[in-house]
Write a structure and sequence with these properties.
Number of strands: 0
Structural class: mainly alpha
Helix content: 55-70%
Number of helices: 13
Number of domains: 3
Radius of gyration: 36 Å
Largest sheet: none
């Protein structure tokens, strides 16, 4: 089962670290004795024998094969429009595992296809839901993923030990290095996620203000919250819900629809319509009376003018 063409595959670094890394690692721990893991034993042994036949257990490709298989198996239960971050993480993890355990692999498309073909022998069914994402992976993209992982590793350590300002220094140094290394082709999508990180970082920093004045932070763009950021309003604290106006507009539209239904198709509307007609008739009668009075006034004016002319004519005679 491949990716449907209904949702376009797109490279993104959003919502990946640390959430999906933790999710990926938890699957192997929680499912290592389940039926899916058991079904992967044979196919993954075959894959490992193909790539690293004499490797020790800790250095073999068996465990990465199982972990990637479990991950893809769980993705089949997710809606297609929510898979994007999961598939982007998959291509990173595919290359990371291969670089660590099977460094001689040159084509990650080929590695992915070999894994999918091996997974076809698993009775529980493991879908090929991330196929269209594999071609996005190259050395530049991999390095961006790796830098985000390192950045969030420092962030998570600071979150667990907010009294240790050393992690603030490491975040600032890595953020500065990251900002300078990103190539132009990926600048926009990376900067958006860097701004997201900056927002999270400053919220966490508010809980430990003693670390705000470290020299590394003050000299890094991570410490500068200004209008140059892609999402500067959010970073400055002026966070407005992006759905506020949409929700208000939807509510207003819903009220109009309800009023229309009540008026045209319910007893309430039947109650209102005669009174509306009565008010309309009263208004029309008033308008008609006003119109008649105006006509009478104009006629009187006309008569007065004619009488004046008549009197004037007679006096001349």
């Amino acid at each position: 089962m491949g990716n449907s063409h209904g949702v376009k595959a797109e490279l993104s670094f959003k919502d990946i670290f640390p959430k999906l890394k933790d999710y990926y690692d938890s699957l192997f721990y929680n499912m290592r004795t389940g039926p899916v893991s058991s079904g992967l034993y044979g196919p993954c042994n075959n894959i490992n024998n193909r790539f690293k036949p004499s490797a020790n257990t800790w250095n073999s490709f068996y465990q990465p094969c199982v972990k990637l298989g479990l991950y893809l198996h769980e993705l089949k239960n997710r809606k297609e429009d929510t898979r994007k971050p999961y598939c982007n993480f998959y291509i990173y993890e595919l290359k990371r595992e291969a670089m660590n355990k099977a460094p001689n692999i040159k084509s990650y498309d080929d590695l992915h296809n070999q894994l999918i073909n091996a997974y076809k022998n698993v009775s529980v069914g493991i879908p090929d839901v991330c196929k269209e994402y594999v071609s996005f992976m190259n050395d530049d993209v991999y390095n961006i993923f790796a830098m985000f992982k390192e950045l969030y590793d420092h962030y998570n350590k600071f979150q667990r030990d907010s009294n240790n300002c050393e992690y603030v220094k490491k975040c600032a140094e890595k953020y500065k290095e990251f900002s300078h290394k990103v190539k132009y082709d990926y600048k926009n999508i990376v900067q958006e996620e860097l701004d997201e990180f900056k927002l999270k970082f400053h919220k966490l920093l508010e809980q430990q203000p003693n670390c705000k004045n470290t020299s590394e932070l003050l000299n890094s763009s991570l410490g500068k919250v200004d209008a140059s950021a892609t999402r500067s309003e959010a970073l400055l604290g002026h966070i407005e819900s992006p759905v506020t106006w949409t929700s208000t507009g939807f509510l207003f539209f819903a009220i109009l629809v309800i009023m229309f239904i009540l008026y045209n198709y319910t007893a309430y509307g039947s109650y209102l319509r005669p009174r509306r007609r009565m008010l309309k008739n009263i208004r029309n009668r008033k308008y008609k009376k006003h119109y008649e009075l105006m006509k009478l006034y104009e006629q009187l004016q006309k008569n007065v003018i004619q009488n004046k002319h008549s009197i004037s004519y007679n006096s001349v005679e």
